Amino acid sequence: MPRFDRYMLSQLMVLFGFFALVLVAVYWVNRAVVLFDRLIADGHSAGVFLEFSALSLPGVIALVLPMASFAAAVYVTNRLMGDSELTVVQATGYSPWRLARPVLLFGVIVAVMMSALTHFLVPASTAQLKEREVEISGSVSARLLREGTFLHPGPGVTFFIREITQDGELRDVYLSDRRREDREITYTAERAYVVQADGGPRLVMVSGLAQTLRTDTRTLSTTIFQDFTYDISNMIVQNQNLNLRPSHLATWDMITRPAEMAQQVDVPLARISEELHGRFQQALLALVSALIGFATLMTGRFSRFGVGRQIVVAIFLLVVVKLVESAVTDPTRENVALWPLVYLPSVVGLALAVGMLHLAARPFRRGSNAEVPA
To answer: What's the CA gap between 148 and 137, in Å, rounded?
Structure first.
C-alpha cells in the first residue's frame, strides 16, 4: 500500500478503537445497571452478575461497531481536511475515488469483525445467557436464603429469616402461605434447615407454631410442633421459558437445515431466512456507514468554520438507511421469497456513498467570467 493509504488506515483504526471502546462502555454501563438491580435484588452473587455481563457483551459490541466505524471515518476525514492534508494529497492528483481506497479497506476490516460477532459470538453468548437465566430462576439459596428481609418468592407467599448462621441454620423463621382461597397458614419456628430431597428442596422447621385461618368461617386454629417439613419446591416459580429464538441459532445450521431450525424454534421459515441474511447485512452496514461518513465530508470545501453541515448530512443519510431497514423488516419476516430485500439498506447506503463521491469528484466550475471593458 502507498504510504498515505497506510497512514490514513492507521488513523482510522486508532480512532475506531477509541470510539468503539467509549460506545461499548456507555451501552454496557446502561445495561449493567439494570442487570445489577435485577440480579442483586433476587439475591444473586456478584459472580453471577459478572457472568451475565460478560455474556451480554458480544451483543453490545455488535450494536456499536457500525456507529464506531462511522464516527472514526467522520473524525479522521474532518481532521485531515482541517490540517489541509487532504488538500495537499488532492493537489498531487489523488481524486476522492482514490482517497476512498483506505476507507474501503477499513470498512472491510470492520465488516470482518462484525461477521465474527454476528455469526459466532453473539448467537453462542445469547443461547448460553438464556440457559443461565432459566437455571438461576429456580435457585433456592438466591430466592429464599436472605436474612432480615421479607421475601415474596411466589404469589401469596411471604418468607422471613432473622439470621442465618455459618452452619446453615435459619433462626426465627416466618412463613405465610396464602395461596389457597379458603385458608391462610402462618408458620413460625425458632430454627429451620433447608434440605434436598428427591422431590425438591424441603424446609424443616423445629420448635414452631402453625396458625390456620379459615377465611369462610373466620376461625383460627393453632398447632404447636417440634419439627415440621414443608415443601418449598413449589414456592420457587422457575422460568421455564427456554424456547430458543432465531438469534440463538448457529449460522451454519440455518444455512444447511433451515426448515428444521424453523420447526425447532417454532417460527415461520421466512423468519429464519430474515435472521440468516440479516447477519450478513449487519456486517455490510459497518462498511456502508464508514463510506457514507467519508464520502459526505469530501463534498465540502476547506472552511475555517469546519464541515458541520456535511456531518449533519452524513447523519441524515444514515437515518435514511435505517428507515429503509425498518421498512423491509416486516415483509421479509412474512414472505421467504422477499429475502433479497434484507440487503436493500446496504444497497441504498452504497448508492448514497457513490453519489456523494461522484459529487465530490466533479471539477470545481467557476461561473462565467464577466467581460472586462477595454
So the answer is: 21
Classify residue 180 as exposed, middle or buried by CB count within 10 Å of its CB (0-12, 13-18, 19+).
exposed
Q: Cα separation of 247 and 270, whole Å? A: 14
Predicted structure pTM score: 0.73
Span 113-134, pLDDT tens digits = 999 999 999 999 888 888 777 6
Q: Give the containing element (helix H, strand E) for 97.
A: helix 96-116
Three cell numbers, residue 82: 482541517
The three-state secondary structure class of 174 is strand
pLDDT at position 240 is: 47
Q: What distance in Å separates the CA atoms of residue 246 and residue 253, rounded to the nearest whole number?
A: 11
Sheet holding 170-177, edge to edge: 157-164, 170-177, 183-197, 200-214, 219-231
Neighbours of 349 (CB within 10 A): 24
| CA distances from residue 281 to 46, 110, 115, 239, 306 in whole angstroms, order as listed | 36, 13, 9, 33, 33
Q: Distance between CA 151 and CA 202 in Å, rounded? A: 17
Q: For 147-172, what is each residue's pLDDT tens digit?
A: 788 887 777 888 888 888 887 788 89
d(CA 112, CA 284): 9
Q: What are phi and psi of 68, to 5 degrees?
A: -65, -40
Nearest-angstrom CA–CA distance, 70 and 20: 10
CA 69 to chain centre: 18
